[in-house]
Amino acid sequence: MHKWIMSGVFFAACALAIVLMFTLPGKEEVAEEAKPTMPPVTMDAGQAEALVKANCITCHGDQLQGGMGPSLQKIGSQDDVEKIYTTIVKGKSGGMPSFKDKLKDEEIANVAMWLAEKK
Question: pTM value?
């Protein structure tokens, strides 16, 4: 009787492993999901500055000098536009929230392009 129970548990474990093998995403899918794609936009500095003032100065300061969040005055010399875009979309652990539900993709791309020019 004990052998039958162990055989059943083994069979169930194998079946579960096969199901998971075909349903879990692969490395490529996870990497693609992890890095959002920036939409093509033409930068509008006025709109970007207005969005930053409305959403970012609480943490990054009214002159982007930093505060609760890091200084963004020279962020373009540290990160490229894609990395800035990804950070705004996904946020960062330790306090930076995601803005994907607060701003449109085009607005985030515009802000990322504007910040990337800060060198």
Answer: 0.71
- Assigned domain for 91 exists: yes
Task: For residues 110 and 26, give the distance between their C-alpha atoms in angstroms, rounded to a whole number.
Answer: 31
CB atoms within 10 A of CB 115: 23
Counting the structural domains of the chain, the total is 1
- The answer to whether residue 110 is domain-embedded is yes
Per the annotation, does 2 bind a ligand? no
Q: What is the mean pLDDT of residues 17-37?
A: 73
Task: Calculate mean pLDDT across residues 84-110.
Answer: 93
Per-residue pLDDT tens over the stretch 7-22: 888 889 998 888 887 8
Q: Would the annotation count 56 as a binding residue?
A: yes
Report the CATH number that the domain containing residue 97 is assigned in CATH: 1.10.760.10
Q: Is 1 annotated as a binding residue?
A: no
- The residue segments making up the domain with residue 49 are 35-116
